[in-house]
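Postdoc handover notes: sequence design on the structure in folder B. Input tokens:
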């Protein structure tokens, strides 16, 4: 019993989408880059999310994905089940045929665990997941700006770069 990458990536991508959709449709390429998830994998996941009316797609320039419902109406369970993620702790997949004689001795224990997992995921709304990320957003944006500065520095031809010297905490060109 475990949540595979399919369910984890789907929830992660939906948080990313929900955090940025106020700016307009969000591209899968942007989500893939920010979350380090394969674009082709996201395309598969978002196809399922769209068919389950969790996201809507907009084609053309400026296109991408947006939420089909308010984030307060989308649960983690909706997302996980939309991408066909099985949450089953039983050996028999809930069919009560664990052994030839019928259910195994721990069948009810695992069925109850299944029920509790589903109840918990249904209680967690996308809006709460987005809200929990807002405290970390400032830290992340500082990291991103530093990365962009490094990328920009790497894009300059080496002939335009100058050697620098640090002397008692002061920078100067050599």
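Designed sequence:
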């Amino acid at each position: 019993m475990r949540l595979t990458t399919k369910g984890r990536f789907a929830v992660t991508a939906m948080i990313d989408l929900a955090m940025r959709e106020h700016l307009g449709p969000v591209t899968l390429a942007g989500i893939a880059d920010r979350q380090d998830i394969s674009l082709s994998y996201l395309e598969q996941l978002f196809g399922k999310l769209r068919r389950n009316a969790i996201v809507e797609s907009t084609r053309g320039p400026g296109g991408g994905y947006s939420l089909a419902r308010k984030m307060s109406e989308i649960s983690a369970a909706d997302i996980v089940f939309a991408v066909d993620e099985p949450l089953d702790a039983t050996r028999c997949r809930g069919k009560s045929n664990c052994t030839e004689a019928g259910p195994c001795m721990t069948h009810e224990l695992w069925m109850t665990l299944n029920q509790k997992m589903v109840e918990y995921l249904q209680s967690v709304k996308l809006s709460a997941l987005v809200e929990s990320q807002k405290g970390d957003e400032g830290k992340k944006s500082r990291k991103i700006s530093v990365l962009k500065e490094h990328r920009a520095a790497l894009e300059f031809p080496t002939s335009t770069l100058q050697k620098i010297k640090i002397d008692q905490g002061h920078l100067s060109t050599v």
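Context for whoever picks this up: The CA atoms of residues 43 and 161 lie 40 Å apart. Don't rerun without checking with the PI first.
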